[in-house]
Amino acid sequence: MKKTSSSLPLEIRASARHPLGMPAERFLRDYWQKRPLLIRGAFPDFQTPVMPEDLAGLACEEGALARLVTHDRATDGWTLRNGPFREEDFPGMPDHDWTLLVQDVDKWDPDVRALIEHFNFLPRWRMDDVMISFAATGGSVGAHVDQYDVFLLQAHGHRRWQIDASESTRGKRPPLDFRPDVELKLLRRFKPTHDWVLEPGDMLYLPPNVPHHGVAEDPCLTFSFGMRAPSSAELISDWLDDLVADADEAIRYQDPDLKLPEDPNEIDAAAMKRVVTALNALRMNDPDRLGDWFGRFITTYRAAGDILPSQAPPAPADVDAVLDEGGLLERHPWARLAWRRATRGAVLYSSGHAFPLPVKDAQGLAAAERIDAALFRKLSAKGRSAVMELLAGGHYQLLDAETLAAMQAEQDALDVMEDAFDDEADAPELEIEVFEYAQAGEGEPASGAIDTVQVNEEGVEVVVICDDGDEDGPAA
Q1: CA pair distance 304, 460, nearest whole angstrom
Q2: CA distances from residue 48 to 136, 315, 396, 418, 444 in whole angstroms, order as listed
């Protein structure tokens, strides 16, 4: 017996086979953009890759999009501050009633970006960003609605969520007018129908325009996976800009079939047909042109920042040599890729750039965060040419085997130290011994990068190239 819309559950438990608590096809049919759903245990035994101090540090970065929301319970007043913030801003914060929000964390942290793979039941180009919020006990951003779909993953601590699901359960649209006395778009009235406390690994899905209110039960982190949802006004405005930019001035309103008008002041039906003909001459009904515009638009919509090359473009032979020796082409974290089938072949889009390619090339490149020698060799000449153009524009970075090894060694050292201090009560005393201190030679780097790491029974031996602050220069 098929369940009616009103009888479908709004809370379900995930399983190893069905992380959504049901097959993805059923979720899309019954819940996507229709009904909220709380999925208990969607990410079992979840361990957050980002801690509150990490988020605070990111909020101090110049390019980060960060906000700080504080609530005064006595007056029900709300204060919004925009980042970037200073490190000294956070130690003085109270232990309650404030929230730090940082957008686009997936562009800064590869472990956060990897979580997006769990949402491959949706088109990847629909994913906008991963916003992470830290809330002190009682922290909130008030009762509000979002104009897009969002998945709220509880990553650390506990948060109480209240939602108004009256529209999906009773067909009654809740009031959505805002309070006039605060700069945040908070609902004037909010009457919840459901009340839950989420623990780490639980995830709440909310379609657009579902009123909701989250309050931290204790210091907590919440990951928000938001979807791109451009408004019709944004779509029309950008599409018309694209049409106008390439419009042929010779294409005009024409009426060679003009008949003697009954009323010279009337815009009659025949005139309107000629208007439609003139607009269609701009190829508004051309599927390839429309698809190319949308591919460029959606891969730049709400872009986190501009992509600029970080290195001079290498010669194709140099790229081949680096890849053959174990190197990789790594995609820029801000680069958004998508592809579509065209009348002939396919088109790959990367942050507003379009490349006509064979279907297999477009599919492979859109899916790959990294390009190794094997994938590069599988590409057609057109595909390799597109990669070289994207590399020159900064959409990819060429990393040789030595650089990759150093990056892995640094990560290994961090993992060893994190494992050693997972349990503070049993953490061993850390002893650091400087057994060699040598002046770096002229032209040698003077950064804080880990050069080599060796793990043995006696501990972790790390060689770091650093700057000791002496006027005589760097030391190693």
Answers
A1: 38
A2: 17, 41, 28, 13, 37
Helices (H), 281-399: 287-298, 316-324, 359-367, 373-378, 381-392
H/E run at residue 236: helix 232-245
pLDDT digits (tens, 9 = 90+) for 264-299: 999 999 999 999 888 877 766 677 888 999 999 999
Compute the distance between CA of residue 450 and CA of residue 470 in angstroms, rounded to an integer: 20
Dihedral Cα 265, 269, 274, 280, nearest 10 deg: 130
DSSP letters, 160-191, are EEEE--HHHHHS-PPP-PBPTTSSS--BS---
- Would you say 159 and 196 are in contact if contact means Cβ atoms under 8 Å apart? no
Strand order in the sheet with 194-198: 194-198, 159-163, 212-216
Nearest of 371, 421, 423, 376 to residue 398 by alpha carbon: 371
Q: Which residue from 310, 325, 308 is spatially nearest to 404, judged by alpha carbons?
A: 325
Kindly indicate the confidence band of residue 462, based on its pLDDT and cuts at 50, 70 and 90. low
CB 295 within 8 A of CB 331: no
Percent of the chain that is helix, strand, coil (3-state, to 5):
30, 25, 45
* Contact criterion met (CB below 8 Å) for 282 and 293: no
Looking at residue 247, its pLDDT comes to 75
- The HSE-up count of residue 342 (CA atoms within 13 Å, CB side) is 26
The answer to whether 84 and 62 have CB atoms below 8 angstroms apart is yes
Handedness of CA 178, 197, 6, 44 (dihedral sign): positive
Q: Which of 452, 448, 468, 357 is nearest to 409 (CA)?
A: 452
Q: On the CB side of 467, how many CA atoms lie within 13 Å of its CA?
A: 8
Which residue do the tokens 């657009």 mark? Answer: 208
Give CA torsion, residues 390, 391, 392, 394, to 10 deg.
Answer: 90
Band (pLDDT 50/70/90 cuts) for residue 421 is low
Q: What's the burial of 438, exposed, middle or buried (CB within 10 Å: 0-12/13-18/19+)?
A: exposed
Length of the chain, please?
476
Mean pLDDT of 34-57: 97
Phi, psi of 408 (to 5 degrees): -65, -40
Look up residue 345 and give its two tokens: 């072949």
Beta strands in 384-424 (DSSP E): 396-399
93-128: string of b/e by CB count within 10 Å (b at 16+)? eeeebbbbbbbbbbbbbeebbebeeebeebeebebb
How many Å apart are CA 107 and CA 128, to the nearest integer? 11
pTM score, whole prediction: 0.82
